[in-house]
Each structure stands twice: as structure tokens, then as C-alpha cells.
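Reviewer 2 asked us to include a model.

Predict the structure of this chain.
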Amino acid sequence: MRLTLKMKELSSAEVRSLFLRFFESKGHKIEPSQSLIPQNDPTLLWINSGVATLKKYFDGSVVPENHRITNAQKSIRTNDIENVGHTARHHTLFEMMGNFSIGDYFKEEAIPWAWELLTSPEWFGMDPDKLYVTVYPNDDQAKDIWLHKVGLPKDHLYEEPDNFWDIGEGPSGPDSEIFYDRGEEFNDPDEAENYPGGENERYLEIWNLVFSQFNHLPGLTDNKDYPELPTKNIDTGMGLERVVSVFQHAKTNFETDLFLPLIHKTEDISGQFKYGEDDTKDISFKVIADHIRAVTFAIGDGALPSNEGRGYIIRRLLRRAVLHGRKLGISQVFLKDLVPVVGEIMISYYPEIAKNADYIASIVEAEEIRFNKTLTDGLSLLDDVIEQAKSKKGIIDGAIAFKLYDTYGFPYELTEEYATDEGLKVDRDGFDEQMKAQQERARSARSNKASMGVQNELLTGLKTPSQYVGWSELTVEQTELVNLIVDNKLVEEANAGQVQAIFAKTPFYAEMGGQVADLGMIYDESGQAVAKVTDVQNAPNGQHLHTLSIIAPLFVGKQYKLDVDRPYHVAVSKNHTATHLLDQTLRNVLGEHTTQAGSLVTAEGLRYDFTYNGAVPSEKLQEVEDIINQKIIDNLPISWIETDIESAKKLGAVAVFTEKYGEKVRVVSIGDYNAEFDGGTHANSTAELGMFKIVGEQGTGAGVRRIEAVTGSGAMALFKLHDSWLAKAAEQVKAPQLSEINDKISGLQTALKEAERQAASLEQKLANQEADAAFANPQKINNYTLIATEMAVESMDVLRSTADTWKQSTPSDVLVLAANLGDKVNLLVAVAPEAVKKGIKAGDLVKSIAPAIGGGGGGRPDMAQAGGKNPAGIADAFKQAADWLQEK
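Predicted model (C-alpha cells):
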């Protein structure tokens, strides 16, 4: 009989640390948690799992330096936001801890290590009797390891047909899920699935081990037909929030040190309710705690509230939290006060949240103030909707409920709650239909590219060494051609077309970090040009893979001269240096929270994306440009060293968003102004840039701005273009000197305004004359009088002015004016006060006659207007107006 082991009591920080240190002891490299905003992955809106940042290793496009990796990765999933707070373990933001093998160890190591971490007193020290495992029925190898190598009792092993991880084309395989038995007190007698792997509260899944051993190839639908992967992998996931709830004996994830400080702070702000006293109020406490965590981390990583994409998710989460605050009696702005609490909770692993708490809180506060204004409008609309629904079979239309949700941030359940209070129902099917349509729009907006690529066995298997020397050499006089690839096959020679090639040594820069690849030529030993280099990419094992356009036959094993296109290379290098200057200067001018979100460096110029809330003011852009040009004038030296990561950080080097770095890193310094981790090529000094000029600044998405700029000859070409425009303008305004252009333009503007004033005055006089004639002859229609006339005017303003004149004496009950503007028509209808009282409404009349001019319109009972594109219909519109009055 086994003794029951007393469960360790561990903080969330201790759990995370133990997990990472355990796998570090097994030779794994600890990868830091990456940004929630995916980089170079259009298939994801957010990083949604521990493996999401490692996909390039799993699909073989990159071979890591260390094939054993472990991480604790912050993640966001928002496909079931409505479940948050209603269940024990649904979250929008969560941390996924995992260990990964990229073609190294497999099940024989992964399963025993998992058991060791969970049960060893040195590590988690869980009671083995409380652990259960599920396996894929056909995975005999995993079953054997669990039963005979680990010693798991047979009655603790369950076969589960769903234990096969497959997300489409690419790596897939069986998995083993590990469950913790929380005890009989969590049994539900009404629960039919009260067993490990079933839907129940007793057996809590704490870890999933995925054995990525098959390749889901295009066209295959049955996993029995999937071929074995050339490189098998391990991918595991342990939710931090779940396992912490075990160590802290929590009924749900929310009663842990990850959430309770937020809940207690919300209690203090509310002053009316306490967590644990009312199930309905508890839901609101949980929603607020969950959502502010997600919002804080998302904004901390550069996402900002908006009406699209990630920004829409942030806005939606904030608004749900505010509404649940209202349910707790919180009417003031309060979410900003929770941001520092998130920072305190997560400070051991995410110190940047506490560091940037003031900035994050300011964004949250501004959004909450904005929503409070919207909320007032939404509540007013909801009141109107309820009144209308009372006269329509007591049902609120689903499309209207969705508008409240989508535009005003009202969750469906809130609208339903208000409706129930009034004895009404909400059309849930109609709401779901609108929601589905929105989700389809969101899906279509994202890339259809496969989530994870299919491994390329040839490139992954190429281990031949290749040395890059392009930081200091642009010509390699002699080097061996070691690999030739044609149609994904190794060949010994190639005579025509395009091929891929790897050389023992190369001066050609491979495209990376936003910098385009070098171009150039390949020569044989006699000096004859044999190939043109059109592109260079990194192969999975780091070699520079050249795309060549063949001029003369190439042979593996022969020696060749490699020569980079110098002017092209120098132009690209200058623009790359400019991006470093721009990155540093933007942070100095706009704030440290401004971070790089992407870049493109070419010979023609540079494109730099960065996080910022709103357009950059023109004076700030000018300040940025002036500072950079001063650094160019200062002729700062540019140098680089290769060192380890920690030493680089001590030098103050900045790591660029989510780039991954090896054990050794290259640090590029621009004087004492800027130091960054960087593998690209640069100028030798800032003076070589010559000049820096911003071409434009614009938004590219939620919270992301883009600056385009040029340097050197590109800047000179731009100034020449501007000079030519100025010269042409001077000629047109007859300015003898460029310095006189502004005075000349100002004089022309004054003259134009005076001419426009005189023209408008003359037009009004003519209109008044026409009106006097028309006002003298109203038509008698039934019990009303009508004046309908076409006026030779150029704008709706003159029609309104004529209507104002008509109002002073009201020579008719109804006035209909039309202006023929050539390709379009303006209509105006006015109705006298007495006629309005009798039911004659201008808005109704204009809607009735507008189709005659091919348009539509509307307005108030006393005045309305319309526009159309059929001038020939004016007479018909007048006739229809008379007919409309005749019927009254």
C-alpha cells in the first residue's frame, strides 16, 4: 500500500521556474516568451500556443542550434470569450509551458522525463497514485513505455481515439494526455463522463505530450496513410494556470496567485461585493481579472485598441470588463488601476509589464473613458429597442442584438438579461447568424497559407558547411561549389535555367531581418561569367542558399569567383544603418514603448513599421528627421563585435522584437548613440549616408505606423524632384524667385476668394429673381398650394437660401426646388408649418419623388433634400410631387 504524499504548495513563479529548470537540466535551451503579436506568420492573429513561435523549427525551414528547447510562452485565444468566467478554466490570456525536441529525442525520453518532473520530490513531487494517462489506441509504443518503463498501473492508462494531434498539412501525430485526480469531492453524480479524458471536474488535464512523427501531406485525409516524418519531434504543453490550481488546492484557476490579487483589488474598488458570496457576481470578478491580464499583455507587446484585427479584440475585452464592472457597482474608470497589479503578479518572468505599467494604464484609461461615452448611447439604444420589441411579439431582433454587441460592446447575455427583466426574448439564431458572418469575414481577411509547412527533407538534411564573409569582403576570389539543386534534387552539374547553390564561402548576404539579399555575379577560373545571383536565402541549417540564373555550365566541386554588386550592396547597407538611427530616434522622441513591428531595407529606400497610438505629429516627424541628419553630420563611426547574449545586453544592445539569437550574437554600434543585436550589413560611418529624408508616414493597421524614407542618392533624387515641382509652380504663378512663391500663391488665393464671393452674390441675385417669378404663381393642388421650379444654380446652398426666403412669406404650402448640375441633380422640398400640422411631411415627399431623378433622400418634416444622377427626370419629379399632393 502506497503512502499518500503531501502535495507541495508552490507559487506560480516557482512552478514556472521548476518546469524550465528541469528541462534545462536535460540539455534544453530556455527560449524566452515571445511577443503575443506573430512575426512573419499571417496565419495567426495572436500567438496562441507554446509551439506557435517554434513552427519554423518543426516544419524544417530552420534548424535550431540546440535541438532541445523549453519555454513558458504567453498566449491568447479568443474563440470562446463568452465562456470566460462561467467555467473553471477558460481564459483569454494563458501561459503554456512546454518542452520540445526538434529531431532529437522522442517518446523513449519524453515520457519518462514527464513522469520524473511530475513525481520526483526534487521537482513537482506529485502523488503518482493521483496521475492518469490517455493514449491513442494505435500508439503501442507509448503504451509500452508508460506501462513498462515508467511503471504506470494498467488501470491508470486509458485509450482515447481523439488523442491524435492534426491541424492540417504538415507535422502531426499521436499524443498522451496526463490527468490529475482532484479527489472524490469533485465527483458529480449526474456526470456520465466521470473518468480521465471525459468531461468532468475531478480528473484535470495538466499536460499533453504530442509525438510529432507523421507528415500530413496534401490530399491525405486518413492518418493511417500519413508517411513517417524524416525528422520526428516532441511538442508538449502544460497550462501554467491549470497546474498552479493543483498546487494551490484551488477549486478553479481563479483562486490562485495568478488571479486573486486582481480579484481582491476589484473588491476594493467595488466596495459593495465580495468574491465567493454570489455566483453571479463571481462571474464578473473572473471576467475582469481574466480580461485585464490579456489586455495588459497585449498592449505591452504593442497592440492597441481599434476597430479591426487585434485592436478589435482588445477593445472587446476592455468593454466586457467595463460592463462587468457595472454589475459590481463600479461606474468610475477603474481598469487602469488593475494594470500595476498584473505587473506585480508577473514581475518574476515578465518585468517589462511593471516597467511599462504607466504607459499601458494610460491606453486602458483612454479606451475606458471612450467606452463610457459609447455605453451611454448603447443603453439609450437598448431602451428604444426594448420599447419596439414590446410591440413586436416580445422578441428583440437578432441583428439588433448583434449591433449592440458589435458596435457598443454589449455581450449577448447582457442584452438577454435586460430583455428578461422586461419580459422579452432575444432572437438567438439571428444573433448567431450575424456572428458567424463576422467570423467568416475575419477568416477571409487572414492568409490561407498553411499553418505549418511540410518538411523539406533535402534541405533539412544538407549539413555541408558554408562560411559567410560578406561583412568585410564583397569578393571571394576562389571557393568551391559544394551543392547544386535542381527541382529539389541534388545534381552534379547544371547547364541552363535557374538552380540553387551552396558555396564553401560566400560574400552574398542572405535576406534576413528585413534586409534584402545581395545581387551579383559568379565567374569561373578563366574569368568567364557563368551565373547571375538573383536571390539568397538561409537554408534550414544556416547555409546561404543562392538562386542562380545560369549563363554557362556549373559543376559541383569546381572553384568559382563570387562577386557582389557593390553599388547595390552599399545602397542597401546605408539604408539599413538608417533604420537603426530611425529606431533609436523614434524611441527617444516618442517614448520607449515605441517598438519595431517590421522593416524592409532595399537599395531604393527603407520602410520601418513601429507601434504607436495614432498618427505621428508633423513636428515630431520633423524632429526625428533633424536628429538623424545631425547624427549623419556628426560622422559617427559604425562598428560591430561578436559576443555572448549577456555581454551584449550589458553593452545596452537592443534586441529587435522577436528575432531569435544564437549563443553568439553580433552587436552593431553607431557611435555611442545606438547599439543593437544585428546580423545585417552597414555603412562604415553615418557620414556615408549623406542625407536622410522621410518620404511619408501612415497607418498600416491597428496601432502600427509606417515611415518610408530615403538616404544618399535616393534623398538627392527626391530633392531634385521637389525642386522641379517648385520651379514649375513658380512658373505657373509667375514668381521671378522661388522665395516669392508663397506671396504669389497668397495673392491668388485672395483674388480667388473675392471672385468666388462675387460669383456667389451674382448667383444669389439671379436665384432671387427666379424665385420671385416662381413665388408669384403657385399651383393649386387639392387643398394645398405648390411651387415647383428648376433653378439655374450651382449648389445646394443656394437652394437652401431660396427656401429660407420662401419661409419668410410662405407663398405656398409646399416648395419643390431643383438644380440641374449637368451630371447630377439636387432636389429640395420645404413644407409650411400649417401644412406640416396637417400631415404633409417634406421627408415623405422627397422620398416619393427622388426616384424620378435616379436618387434618394430624406430629412425633417419641414425640410428635406435629395440627390440623383438623372437631370432628365426633373419634370417628372415635379409631376409626381403634384400627384402626391393630389392624393392628400
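Residues 770-886 form a domain with the Diaminopimelate Epimerase; Chain A, domain 1 fold (CATH 3.10.310.40). The first strand starts at residue 29 and ends at 31. We have added this to the supplementary material.
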